[in-house]
Amino acid sequence: MSPDPEQEYFCDGMTEEIISDLSQIHDLLVISRSSAMTYKGKKKKIKEIGQELNVQYALEGSVRKVGSSLRITGQLIDARNDVHLWSKKYSGTLDDVFDIQEKVSGSIVDALKLKLNPEEEKKIAERPIENVKAYECYLQARQEIWRFTEKGLERGLQLLRNGLEIIGENVLLYAAMGTAFYLYVDAGIKPGELYLQKAEECVQNIFELNPETSHGHYLLGSIHMLRGNMQQAVRDFKRALNKEPNNPDCLLQLVRIYGSCGKESAAEPLLEKALALDPLNAIAHSLPGYLQLLSGQFDSAAELYYKMYQMDPESPIFRWFYAWSLIFAKRNEEAYRIIDQLASDFPSSAFASYGLFIKNALQGSKQEALQNITPELEEAARGVEYHSRDMAHGYALLGEKNKALDWLENAVDCGFINYPFIAEIDPLFENIRGEERFKTLMKRVKYEWENFEV
Prior knowledge:
mainly alpha; Rossmann fold; three-stranded antiparallel β-sheet
């Protein structure tokens, strides 16, 4: 409610911090940031929100920040009957922000008549960033990083450096910095080892400050995943979940890995929990379709991907994922329309290039297909297993068997070892399965798949 719209990050950050506090309590299941934020600024009734998210209680509030003055309101509402269980107004200065956050979390615990154990009390009372100016840098940086753009990542990193200059070494600042470096690679903005090495340096700094924190294990797991070391990534993510069992991002990364490694049955209970925690996250809703597609249930996979697509139809990545699923379901004309619109709306997007490559390959237009493949696209694809798989699909459809096998080997190196899918289920690999090189590769894939530990 601040007159300066630039202060919006502060309210968003406080929301995220209170979610983080309450998520530490074993007896509460708290909806994640990404799903909660979808209601920001919307005029929905609390009862309607409760039904959509399947929650019993809603915390509603506002922040007004003018200069160093701060006014915060909060009210806890029973979403079933719209009864107010607790409400409070807090006034103070920026220096009081940590006390206010702790009081809000504590008041909710009291209103719900929860009994905290000593570890939970300690976590709620923790102040990972004591300095208010550094805390503001952190909150602002997080907002920039979540834009998933090169400029946003650059701005976020500079804000985090400013925070480190103010307070010195800090776990949260290093964790956010490592996330930014990781996203450069995962989003295909800056592919290659350089930014993964920078992220790894952040992990080392985190563990020197606190060897037990979930932040370090989560970030390390993400790095190992991008390097194709899926087995080690599983160990890292499980360590992170031991410390923070309701971390939806961690659950989703494990689901993604288990799917790629042919362990769909291990992925399903984790996905169920992740969707309960983060029911409005479109990325989370891409994974049920992915698991169905990997098991050969192409029609149902396309329907599930359609649900994901409806949640954010403007997103280039969701358009391509949906079109990809339609191709497997033999609904090519529908897929082509989505790919053409994607290329029209986002002509410089890598997802448009992959889509046109596959579309033209399916239509037998070899020259048009190859026009979409640039050295920059190849460099971006080389470090990501699903993009490597897209490249292998396109070349296999074009009859470029050696190139298809090169890219399939690269996808395997990146951790895609779902043996049943590659060896038997995937129809786009049909014309390379008779190659001796494919058969040799499958011996390796089968061994790694059979010996992968969940």
